[in-house]
Amino acid sequence: MRDLQGMPGTVGGLFLRVSQLLSAAVALSVMATASDFPSVTAFCYLVAAAGLQSVWSFVLAIVDAYALLVGRRLQNSRVITSTLTFASACASAGITVLISNDLGACGENHCVEFETATAMAFLSWFGALPSFLLNFWSLASK
After folding, report:
1. Bridge partners of residue 7, in order along the sequence
2. Which residue of 21, 23, 36, 95 has the lowest C-beta tally within 10 Å?
3. Nearest to residue 128, comparing CAs of 53, 77, 55, 76?
4. Of 50, 55, 63, 80, which is closest to residue 10 (Cα–Cα)?
5. Tell me: the pLDDT tens digits for 67-95?
6. What ranges do the domains of the chain cover?
């Protein structure tokens, strides 16, 4: 099977890893700067998932960069943390909508930070989705 851009060990794969890393890091830092995020379990879950996604994407970016430098093809499948990131983004989005629309309590909360962190978590998931699908496809075509 030929390498498609976005698969591990390609330039597209490295770009996806770096975009996942940046989005997850921004989500983590924005949510962590909000002083009242520990009061909501979904937001704590988002911080944990974004932290894990940041570390995981950083390690995969290093592996992809090394594979590109030495000209090797990566064929082994790796676990993708996209499901964890997607679940935390959905939970945080639900709580953010509850706080802003249903309770109307944005004045006493950090709604902008919550919305920004949730959006960044979704962007991180969108960056991980092509890798997940291509890895799944490569496993199915073996």
Report:
1. 5
2. 36
3. 53
4. 63
5. 888 887 665 545 566 677 788 888 888 88
6. 11-140
The amino acid present at 91, given as its one-letter code, is A
Q: What is the mean pLDDT of the chain?
A: 79
Residues pairing with 5 in the sheet = 7
Place of tokens 């770096």: 18
Q: Does residue 60 contact residue 31 with C-beta atoms inside 8 Å? A: no
The CA distance from 63 to 129, in Å, is: 18
d(CA 76, CA 15): 19
Amino acid present at 44? C
Q: What is the pLDDT of residues 112-128, one digit of tens each?
A: 888 888 888 888 888 77
DSSP single-letter state for residue 102: I
* Cα 135 to Cα 81: distance, rounded to the nearest angstrom: 13
Contact 120, 24 (CB under 8 A): yes
Query: Per-residue b/e over 106-123, b at no fewer than 16 CB within 10 Å?
Result: eeebbbebbbbbbbbbbb
pTM of the model: 0.70
C-alpha count within 13 angstroms, C-beta hemisphere, residue 94: 10
